[in-house]
Hints:
Elements: E1 14-16, E2 22-25, H1 30-35, H2 37-42, H3 44-51, H4 56-61, H5 64-68, H6 81-86, H7 115-122, E3 125-130, E4 133-138, E5 158-164, E6 170-177, E7 188-197, E8 200-209, E9 216-217, H8 219-225, H9 232-243, H10 256-275
Antiparallel strand pairs: 1-2, 2-5, 3-4, 3-5, 6-7, 7-8, 8-9
Helix pairs in contact: 8-9, 9-10
Amino acid sequence: VLVGLRGVRDLAGVRTSASGGLAIGAGTTLTAVSRHAQVRGRYDALATAAGVVSTPQLRNMGTLGGNVCVDTRCNYYNQSYQWRKAVNFCMKKDGEICLVAPGSSRCWAVSSSDTAPVLWSLGASVRLAGPGGERTIPISALYRDDGIQYLAKQPGDIVTEIVLPPADGLRSVYLKLRRRGSFDFPVLGVAAAVRMDGETVRAARIVLGAVASLPREAGAASALLMGQRLTPELIERAAEAAYRPAKPLDNTDFGHPYRKKMTRVFVARALRRLAGLPEVAEA
Length: 283
């Protein structure tokens, strides 16, 4: 049975939340999120991420809640039935082993959402509704590090709303690595958000996408920025620290050594953009 939620009008729209941030209905289209004046003005990384998902046609139909909950991906899973049959299937679909890591007891398919790492970096929460009522959890609590059971919500729950904290002193950016300029999932996503007190960072969070089965927070890199000015030297140290927790496997586009290297490059680019410094071309 397929149940459509598009007719539930209360699931769509953007409003100011009780805390002074924004509450975005899970049924709001990605196009609407990317173009919304308050999203663009206060949470630029989210507007960017929503605007680079897939193609205009799919962004016109796809929703923020759908992208938050989008399935994990893997080269061995995202193929035709005939292709998967030829390799004897995989754990995520019809098989018994993970072909990326055959000795593993779990699936290593990667998180493929553009908006999830951004919302995580912004400190967003999600509101869930189900047979047991409503509850609100940090978006970081929505995800599991498992390619099959990648969401922590119950089967009967739906995501109804995404709540963003106030944007006081907030700067944010999202960078996406993909082979083509459109119609591609990320093979690396870097979301960086800082709250500034003048020229000093008073809060920071860097979250990586498409390097694990869930968005991966680069906590050590974020900690380096606290109480500091975003100098070129500090940015390079933070980019090196963010490089360590990125452990991409050979289960998506591009080689995994290249994708790991680009983690450092993209984090540096993101932080330089937040600092208002010219980006350094490196590949």
